[in-house]
Amino acid sequence: MVSLESAHRFEATIHLKRIWGDRCQVVYVDASPTVRSSRAAETEMGLQARDATKRQRGADRIADVADHVVNNAGPLSALKLAVNRLVSIVDLPRAAPQARGLLTHTAWLGLAANHFVDGHVALVLATGSTGTAGWRNGWSDLDLLVVRDCLPLDWLRRAVRALPPPGGPKVAVSAFSTADLDALRVPPRVVQALRRASHGIGVLYQRPDYLIPAPLMQHADHTSRGELGLILMTTRRLLADTDTDVRALHKHLVLLAKILLRADGCDVNDAEDVIAAFRDRHPAANCHPPALGDLTGRPKEPALITALVEATDHLLSYLDQLDHTIRTRT
Fold this sequence. Notes:
Layout: H1 10-20, E1 27-30, H2 33-39, H3 44-56, E2 68-71, H4 76-89, E3 94-95, H5 106-116, E4 121-127, E5 142-148, H6 153-161, E6 171-177, H7 178-182, H8 188-197, E7 203-206, E8 212-213, H9 217-226, H10 228-240, H11 246-263, H12 271-281, H13 292-297, H14 302-322
Parallel strand pairs: 1-2, 5-6
Antiparallel strand pairs: 3-8, 4-5, 4-7
């Protein structure tokens, strides 16, 4: 992406659009004279003189041909969020896929979808291993994602609390607004769920007028690396606990491996496939956790816990050195 700031000559802007076509996105940032004057570091006379020069160049006419017009009358945070939305949506495809069949918990997932659906609900997804052959009894949760036009407090409390229990597995419900999804203001796991949903995987309900955002690999990579610090912090907290939470630690080891694999351009989801791909691409990490089947079957076995802890520690040490490829002149 190339950013040309202060392109305030009308004819030059039209020329750029003519040459680059849709690759050139013109953004016009607008604010009233009163707001601009209150923010200016220069005198009122200086601001007026500069504006007169821009009008002579046709800057005020650019709004008529701009691809996006941003109202900059609000706080700086509003501008930053608006720019983030523009960057996110400029190359974000949409999809209306044919839903694929569920493999597990079919009856309850259908009941759950019907429970949430109303006129404001745009999408209900089964995420992670939910509904797939990768779901493991006693280890996996039932994860649902609900996308709604608005999420008032009374709806959140009433709808989630009244969800019929499946009888056994834990249930986790995540709710996002359609505005959140439009701006990809979601964590990496939701980006991955949307990528799968764009192929029909996990789709329990899709409103007829709603197209699913279909993030690309670069979106998944960027979002994942943006959450790396949080995952590192949580993983080290898990390692520091002598009463090891085997399930949580294994999950975070897999998350860290996924982040590096996505940065490599490798997109895998199943936990065992992730570990295998990571060992293949990053042998120097010396990361050899126990097989997931062994952990799920014998989660209290000391030898397996020790092997998991050591594998996670090796991965963290490896990751800590991975970006030391810069030579800075001093």
